[in-house]
Automatic annotation (TrEMBL):
<keyword id="KW-0285">Flavoprotein</keyword>
<comment type="pathway">
    <text>Porphyrin-containing compound metabolism; protoheme biosynthesis.</text>
</comment>
<keyword id="KW-0274">FAD</keyword>
<keyword id="KW-0560">Oxidoreductase</keyword>
<dbReference type="GO" id="GO:0006783">
    <property type="term" value="P:heme biosynthetic process"/>
</dbReference>
<feature type="domain" description="Amine oxidase">
    <location>
        <begin position="14"/>
        <end position="461"/>
    </location>
</feature>
<dbReference type="InterPro" id="IPR036188">
    <property type="entry name" value="FAD/NAD-bd_sf"/>
</dbReference>
<dbReference type="InterPro" id="IPR050464">
    <property type="entry name" value="Zeta_carotene_desat/Oxidored"/>
</dbReference>
<keyword id="KW-0963">Cytoplasm</keyword>
<dbReference type="InterPro" id="IPR004572">
    <property type="entry name" value="Protoporphyrinogen_oxidase"/>
</dbReference>
<keyword id="KW-0350">Heme biosynthesis</keyword>
<dbReference type="GO" id="GO:0004729">
    <property type="term" value="F:oxygen-dependent protoporphyrinogen oxidase activity"/>
</dbReference>
<dbReference type="Pfam" id="PF01593">
    <property type="entry name" value="Amino_oxidase"/>
</dbReference>
<comment type="similarity">
    <text>Belongs to the protoporphyrinogen/coproporphyrinogen oxidase family. Coproporphyrinogen III oxidase subfamily.</text>
</comment>
<comment type="function">
    <text>Involved in coproporphyrin-dependent heme b biosynthesis. Catalyzes the oxidation of coproporphyrinogen III to coproporphyrin III.</text>
</comment>
<dbReference type="InterPro" id="IPR002937">
    <property type="entry name" value="Amino_oxidase"/>
</dbReference>
<protein>
    <recommendedName>
        <fullName>Coproporphyrinogen III oxidase</fullName>
        <ecNumber>1.3.3.15</ecNumber>
    </recommendedName>
</protein>
Length: 469
């Protein structure tokens, strides 16, 4: 009879939990799964909180319904697997705006994260330079090339399209700059099309045609009750032993697998396991790999992260436009980079007491010093800036919450996916029972992180089968 196996999942974010569920579903019966989470709560950047007596997301808010490569997203598939499909809800108000020139203009339709597929449609916000998007006789991007989104779009459509459209939309997701972020990692569908098409307009249209949307098809979904419901259900379904307040500080290869050093230095615990899914952000992963795979550790540890704070205010009956929220280009000189009218956007969150929840995201890559301000200062600034954008003072908040996410959003520079592939290949060859998963590698979205965890779990199962142990 095969020995009972033990797999450690280090990191209890959504990638680690998705890995744990996949291990439970596909690993041989009796496999012991242990999730180690350094903090007191699971879910990582998924955290549903409460404000003024109602639920609100203090971290990630929603998932993409579709996978960028087509088909249902891995987040939706996991939700189904966990029996939560009946709780998926979609935004009731989908139209967002851009705060430009001191006012709000609707985000133009027909773009891919702000990159236009119809230049006329974006004229309300930016003046593109169609003459620059000439057919140069070959594809925009070579087969192995990557480029920053900003560099490509600036060269083809001009600065305004980047500064007033693409940058705020990408910044809303990554808190980073279009000029730094990798096209291949952040906009994979456009990158694929750019390897074939000769113009950017052609590439955007090809990418859109490759994944046509049915009229009214929802782009985003979340769960009634909050995304922490996904976390809780994953924990239950995984049947894993959950260790909270359990920082894994060392990983040491042994003849049979791995020895984990867990907990405080003065009172460490040593645990032997057959395999490890390392589902922590890149920097802690790099620290754990320094001794055993120094080159991989250096490569992974080079990934930079942006810090953000989410400020949520509960406002008594404010007059808000029928918008899901707005994005702010960095050229507007405001601290806030995006605001979500939570109770307008999500009908299931509307409240009988008339309170509106308005959330703003603060913090751009490279401007971390702005986040040093005290909570009250951030909340007051958010209140003042949203009032200015809406051109009328908001009522005083009856409650508020500031959630800081230090070093939370990976800044994938061009070549990121190639670097990750090289690191993974080297690790696989040297340590087949160790796998990397999570936002530090494959992409930032919840669905991508779920898939990353599931893939790591499957590779571990295959490696353990191959080892004959
Ligand atoms: C403010 C914000 C809003 C977002 N909004 C959205 C959104 O609406 N939609 C979307 O798709 N994506 C969103 N994202 C991105 C998405 O939430 C994250 O990319 C994703 O949740 C990351 O999951 P993960 O499991 O890879 O990492 P994490 O969530 O970071 O989880 C990693 C876990 O590992 C633990 N850990 C670290 N080191 C150790 C150690 N040594 N030992 C044990 N445990 C350790 C950490 O405490 C953490 O819990 C948002 C991100 C942020 C920051």
């Amino acid at each position: 009879m095969a020995a009972r196996r033990r797999v450690a999942v280090v990191g209890g974010g959504i990638a680690g939990l998705a890995a744990a569920v996949r291990l439970r579903d596909r690993a041989p019966e009796g496999t012991e799964i242990i999730v180690y989470e350094q903090s007191g709560s699971l879910g990582g950047k998924l955290r549903t909180g409460e404000l003024a007596g109602g639920p609100v997301e203090f971290g990630a808010e929603s998932f993409l319904m579709r996978d960028p490569a087509g088909g249902e997203s891995a987040a939706v598939a996991l939700v189904r697997r966990l029996g939560l499909a009946g709780r998926i809800v979609h935004p009731t108000v989908g139209q967002a705006a851009l705060a430009v020139d001191g006012g709000l203009r609707p985000v133009p339709g027909g773009t891919l994260v702000g990159v236009p597929g119809d230049l006329e449609k974006v004229a309300t916000v930016a003046r593109p330079t169609p003459e620059a998007d000439r057919d140069g006789g070959g594809p925009l991007l070579g087969p192995d090339d990557d480029v920053s989104v900003g560099a490509l779009v600036r060269a083809r459509f001009g600065d305004e399209v980047v500064d007033r459209l693409v940058d705020p939309m990408l910044g809303g997701v990554y808190a980073g700059r279009a000029d730094d972020l990798s096209l291949v990692t952040t906009m994979p569908a456009l990158a694929r099309a750019a390897r074939v098409e000769h113009t950017l307009l052609g590439a955007v249209r090809a990418a859109q045609a490759a994944a046509p949307r049915a009229p009214g098809e929802p782009v985003f979904g979340t769960l009634d009750g909050g995304l922490s419901a996904l976390v809780d259900a994953a924990v239950t379904a995984s049947g894993a032993t959950i260790r909270r307040h359990a920082t894994v500080r060392e990983l040491t290869p042994t003849a049979a697998g791995w020895r984990l050093t867990v907990g405080p230095t003065r009172d460490p615990e040593h645990v032997d396991v057959d395999a490890v899914v390392l589902a922590v952000p890149a920097r802690p992963a790099a620290r754990l790999l320094t001794e055993i795979a120094p080159v991989a550790a250096k490569e992974i540890g080079g990934l930079d992260y942006a810090s953000v704070a989410l400020v949520t205010l509960a406002l008594p009956e404010p007059t808000l436009p029928q918008l899901s929220g707005f994005l702010v280009p960095s050229t507007e000189g405001l601290l806030i980079k995006a605001s979500t009218f939570f109770t307008t956007k999500w009908g299931h969150l509307r409240r009988r007491d008339g309170l509106a929840l308005v959330r703003a995201s603060v913090g751009r890559y490279g401007e971390e010093e702005q986040l040093q301000r005290p909570d009250e200062d951030l909340a007051a600034t958010v209140h003042r800036e949203i009032s200015a954008v809406l051109d009328g003072p908001l009522p005083a908040a009856v409650d508020g919450h500031v959630q800081r996410w230090g070093g939370a959003l990976p800044q994938y520079t061009p070549g990121h996916l190639d670097r990750v592939a090289a690191v993974r290949a080297a690790l696989r060859a040297a340590h087949p029972t160790l796998r990397l998963a999570g936002a530090g590698y494959d992409g930032v979205g919840i669905g991508v992180c779920v898939r990353s965890g599931e893939t790591a779990a499957e590779e571990i199962i295959t490696a353990l089968e191959g080892s004959g142990r």
